[in-house]
Design a protein that fits this description.
The chain is α+β, with helices and mostly antiparallel strands. The chain has a domain of 128 residues. It is 20% helix and 20% strand. The protein has ten helices and 15 strands.
């Protein structure tokens, strides 16, 4: 699935629509991928009697972080990488094959299910998920990812395949068609992503901030999948970095119900490879609650779970400690990119039957984004 925060609207380079109504600002994390891997924090917030304070949160990326980063795909395309190379980077070990002929996608539009031929469906999706002015290779990669996601989502079980909104990927019908996106779809007609001979779910999202995440670290209950491993994302843009400042009152309000007594802090207990928060604990003077990184980010109104916390008192800004044990040297997994090829490898010609449900990982919660930029 795609999920909110994953659509990109810039005519020439990536920009991001607001998340939780707050504008983005660049911070120290905009120096580059290595500088992004900073200590995640406990919020270590003292009681009100200790004096006024603010919680400063700096982070990277937008969306769940699993699969293909649209911002990263833009950067790879600008650096000469083909659609095939982009997809093989974000879905390690995957290959391209052909979708079954005459495939029809069942789309839930409002309260009615529409049956739409696969290629027409993708024509109604592509410009809603990626600006039509972006490089052709990025549009082609998105077309293949969107086509594959439609085949593997099964959002509505036996009733329908995909929603027409960000719970799956945005579908706008004929109004979404442009000459550029239709050309990208025609150039990749019928192509889908497969692993071990089967179509696989192709999660995607807006921006990785410099590294994508393993699926099991992002979506609770998901099993590890070889094509959904976190990889380095070297051509992300600095627009993917953000900073928020919350007052003590706002922080306590957003985390209400997760602690007893007064808010005393949030300890980050475990992080993924990117390093996004996997597990944290909200601490109160009389008790607290453990929760996932996704829930914590949602409660705080953050664009992603890749976040670092700082405590500001007056002019003093102090980074908070981190109990996860994550180190920069452990942040990277696979994903070293070879130089772009002069021509893209030809996709596999094998026709792969649609495997209903098969081995695709559990869908992320609604609103987290998945195979459609998600």
């Amino acid at each position: 699935m795609r999920g909110p925060g994953s659509r990109l609207r810039a005519p020439t380079r990536p920009t991001y629509h607001r998340v939780s109504g707050q504008p983005r600002a660049r911070g120290p994390l905009a120096r580059g991928p290595l500088a992004l891997i900073v200590a995640l924090a406990a919020l270590a917030i003292g009681a009100p009697a200790a004096g006024a304070w603010q919680l400063v949160i700096e982070g990277a990326g937008e969306g769940h972080g699993v699969g293909m980063s649209q911002d990263g795909a833009f950067g790879l395309a600008k650096h000469g990488y083909s659609d095939t190379q982009i997809l093989s980077h974000y879905y390690p070990g995957s290959t391209l094959a052909s979708a079954p002929a005459n495939t029809v996608i069942r789309v839930l539009v409002g309260s009615k299910v529409q049956r739409v031929p696969l290629e027409r469906y993708v024509r109604g999706v592509l410009s809603a998920e990626m600006p039509s002015s972006w490089p052709l290779a990025a549009l082609e990669a998105q077309a293949i990812a969107s086509r594959t996601y439609a085949l593997t989502a099964h959002a509505g079980g036996p009733r329908f395949d995909v929603y027409a909104d960000t719970r799956s990927q945005v579908y706008r019908g004929a109004s979404a068609e442009t000459s550029q996106t239709n050309a990208a779809i025609a150039a990749t007609a019928g192509q889908i992503v497969t692993y071990a001979g089967k179509p696989v779910v192709t999660y995607f999202f807006a921006s990785s901030g410099g590294h994508t995440e393993d699926v099991q670290n992002a979506f609770e209950g998901s099993e590890p999948e070889p094509w959904l491993q976190g990889v380095a994302d070297p051509y992300e843009t600095s627009a993917a970095h953000w900073r928020y400042t919350l007052s003590s009152t706002t922080a306590a309000s957003r985390l209400s119900g997760l602690f007893k007594g007064s808010l005393r802090g949030v300890e980050v207990l475990r992080r993924g490879v990117s390093p996004r928060i996997v597990l944290a604990e909200v601490l109160g003077s009389r008790g607290g609650t453990r929760l996932s990184g996704a829930t914590l980010a949602s409660r705080l109104g953050l664009p992603s779970t890749w976040a670092s916390f700082f405590l500001r008192r007056g002019t003093s800004v102090v980074p908070e400690p981190d109990l996860s044990g994550h180190t920069e040297s452990g942040a990277g997994s696979s994903g070293t990119l070879p130089p772009p090829a002069e021509s893209a490898p030809a996709p596999a010609s094998t026709t792969v039957a649609h495997q209903g449900g098969s081995s695709a990982p559990a869908s992320p919660p609604s609103g987290t984004g998945g195979a459609s930029a998600g």
